[in-house]
Write a structure and sequence with these properties.
Order of helices and strands: EEE
Bound molecules: iron/sulfur cluster
Largest sheet: 3 strands, antiparallel
Strand order of the largest sheet: 1-2-3
Number of strands: 3
Length: 56
């Protein structure tokens, strides 16, 4: 996963004006901007918290 704002959990797109916002700072940002020290991955799939539901 690339260390950029677009892959950060705090990255949000404001639907009303189509601006990218960092919800941690409330500041405009962009998908490709380098991640800051508060970057948190969006996907939780890398660290599953539950056992997979396997067929028996
Ligand atoms: S916390 Fe940092 S890396 Fe994440 S969206 Fe905001 S500025 Fe980008």
């Amino acid at each position: 996963m690339k260390f950029v704002c677009g892959t950060c959990r705090q990255f949000q797109r404001d639907k009303e004006n189509d601006k990218a916002i960092c919800s941690a700072w409330g500041n405009p940002t962009s998908m490709k901007r380098d991640g800051c020290q508060f970057w948190i991955p969006k996907s939780e799939g890398l660290y599953p918290t539950e056992e997979p539901n396997l067929p028996k």
